[in-house]
Amino acid sequence: MWPDKFFMRLYAAIILCFALVSTSAIDRAHAEDDPGAKQFKKSCGTCHIASLEDQKRQGPNLWKVLGRPAGVIDGFKYSENLRASGLTWDEATLDAWLTNPKKLVPGTIMSYRQRNPDKRKLVIDYLASMGRYGED
Q: pTM for the complete prediction?
């Protein structure tokens, strides 16, 4: 009787793993259909991730960036001006940052600018959909 229980448990574990992998693939497929996710990937994805699963890139992870003080993620080289800025990321600050980071914080390292307000809104709404810094 032991081998039957063993194989039943093994089969159940395989099914569970398959379900978890499938759910993750479905979530990723859904994210690829999201206009905000697409715009984030196009505008920000070269330097940033917004995920707990992806490998980090040269810029900080933007997962739950709203409500986060600027320049606090360990392991990233922030300009002294950004760390000393006292900024906390919210929708308005992110909009100003994406419009012209060097105007918001002179001497910052980031140079990317998004002039199109509709594209900035897509990115900001996408980041907001992840929740806020400090929330579980």
A: 0.76
